[in-house]
Amino acid sequence: MVDAFIELDGVEKVFDVRRRTGFLRRERRQVRAVDGLSFTVARGEIVGYIGPNGAGKSTTIKMLTGILTPSGGRLRVAGIDPARERTRLAHRIGVVFGQRTTLWWDLPLIDSYRLAHRMYRIPDARYRENLDRLVELLDLESLLEVPVRQLSLGQRMRGDIAAALLHDPEVLYLDEPTIGLDVVSKARVREFLGELNTERGTTVLLTTHDLQDIERLCSRVMVIDHGRMMYDGPLAGLHEAGESERTLVVDLERELPPVDVGPAARVVRVEGPRQWLAFPASESAAPLVARIAAEYPLVDLSVREPDIEAVIGRMYADRETVVPGARNS
Ligand SMILES: Nc1ncnc2c1ncn2[C@@H]1O[C@H](COP(=O)(O)OP(=O)(O)OP(=O)(O)O)[C@@H](O)[C@H]1O
User: Fold this and answer.
1) Sheet containing 4-20: which strands, arranged edge to edge?
2) How far is the CA of 59 from the centre of ligand 1 (A)?
3) Per-residue confidence (pLDDT) for residue 185, from 0 to 100
4) For residue 159, which of 186, 189, 183, 197 has the smallest C-alpha distance?
5) Distances in whole angstroms, Cα of residue 136 to Cα of each of 10, 127, 132, 141, 300
6) How many whole angstroms separate alpha carbon 175 and alpha carbon 49?
């Protein structure tokens, strides 16, 4: 692959866990959180990194930042071994954890940025320039003097993203950046990340449970489970592999028997005048909507995306056909 920026080759992470099994008895057990993982990410790529709870996503990201040392295999970010040269690497990466903030809770937002300025030894002119740009793009002007604890979740997330980018990192790791955000804040964060990637060529590795984050931003998605790569390719391919379905929710004028649109979709639920139709996620909803609108007294409709757990769950149901297609490099 051209200019591989992140490289993992057979990376493993094994945790020793002690568990109490009786009054004085303890059992030692090993948890293989990451199990022979190999992949590369090229400079400027924006890649979704998904998997069920406990799949090994956070452990991978912690190894990529140098917080955790791999138990085996080879790992490089920008040619650097993260565990060995964590401080040198810190100047080239940015990290945002949706569930935790790196901002100073009791201080005004701007103070966290001033601190980053010193910590990363960002040249003054560069700091000013980046701060102005990020404040404008993320609409932070009115929030700079507000203590972080008073910010809403969406405002805090924008604040965190700016903090992670002040030192011009070449790669940004995002762990659930839209978790708990309302629709407007989600859209804003996604739009910003897309722009960052296009304008600055920042490489982005995005962990999320929200398939729309992936749909809006990533041309490539990697699915891991039990620390192993299950799928690596375009999102559309994942939908096909998992035969995932979207749901069309229609409100009719009155209660009617299940609508009949042939093999294009099937009714999975009826509640009064509202009906839920499942159809393949790889298909457009437009012909289905047109047909229902022509043949039934349609009042309103909405389309619901499948969630990641559902897509992955279906992959397992059909695992034999999926694994041979999985790319592991
Ligand atoms: N410090 C640790 N000590 C022992 N086991 C750990 C440790 N950190 C993670 N694990 C275990 O490793 C496995 C992978 O955990 P990890 O946090 O990487 O998963 P994840 O994909 O990020 O999950 P989630 O979506 O729930 O955040 C889990 O079984 C977890 O319990």
Assistant:
1) 26-42, 4-20, 72-77
2) 6
3) 81
4) 189
5) 42, 14, 6, 7, 38
6) 9
* Model confidence band, residue 237 (pLDDT cutoffs 50, 70, 90): confident
Instruction: Give the pLDDT of residue 78.
Output: 93
**Ligand 1: which residue has its CA nearest to atom 13?**
33
How many angstroms separate the alpha carbon of residue 60 from the centre of ligand 1?
10
Looking only at the bridges linking them, the beta strands covering 26-42 and 46-50 are unpaired
Which residues surround ligand 1 with Cβ inside 6 Å?
15, 17, 31, 33, 51, 53-59
Between the CA of 186 and the centroid of ligand 1 the distance, in Å, is 26
What does the pLDDT look like over 246-278, one tens digit per residue?
Answer: 899 999 999 999 999 998 899 999 999 999 999
Q: How far is the CA of 55 from the centre of ligand 1 (A)?
A: 7
Crossing angle for the helix pair 109-119 and 153-165, nearest 10 degrees?
20
Domain boundaries, the chain: 4-92+169-240, 245-305
CATH class of 4-92+169-240: alpha beta
Closest ligand 1 atom to 60 CA: 18
Residues of the chain with pLDDT > 70: what percent? 92
Amino acid at 146: V
User: What digits encode the pLDDT tens for the residues 174-233?
Assistant: 988 888 778 888 888 888 889 889 988 999 999 988 888 888 899 899 999 899 998 899
Say how far apart CA 212 and CA 207 lie, in whole Å.
12
